[in-house]
Amino acid sequence: MLTALLIMAALAIAIGAALGFAAVKFRVEGDPLVEKIDAILPQTQCGQCGFPGCKPYATAIASGEADINQCPPGGEDGIRKLAELLGREAKPLNAENGTIKPKSVALIDENTCIGCTLCLQACPVDAIIGAAKQLHTVAPALCTGCELCIAPCPVDCITMEALPETLENWKWRYPTFTIKTAA
Fold first, then answer.
1. Interatomic CA distance for residues 167 and 155, integer angstroms
2. What is the value of pTM for the model shown?
């Protein structure tokens, strides 16, 4: 019995050491540029840019497969920050990807909701709370305003409400102009 325990302990130590060595030896480094781009993006995971989320869009920007002006939720401020990071010229939002809208959150009409769970399945950030055949609600702090929950709703009980501008969410409106220097 004691011999079996010692053998198992020795085996566990050997396997642990092998796994530790493999983790160090085969560690994959992430691209720091992708991480910086991803930090600028709004993390709405809405797919309006043509990619399934913000991280794939950041990867595409870093590799040159996508332009910096495809994110409507990021708005002009996001495009400007990406341009500064990448040393490119800022350009207006690509109209094919949508329009810049004020930050908003989804609201579910309690009198109309049938509890079908289609909105829960569509929400990329799990901001909708509820169970099958029960009333659903939205956690405003989690909702990114991506509007992906609106289309699957069979009873049209979901609307988007723009958030009022407060000190917490207010942003400077940067003018779009160029400074000409004397040559």
1. 35
2. 0.67
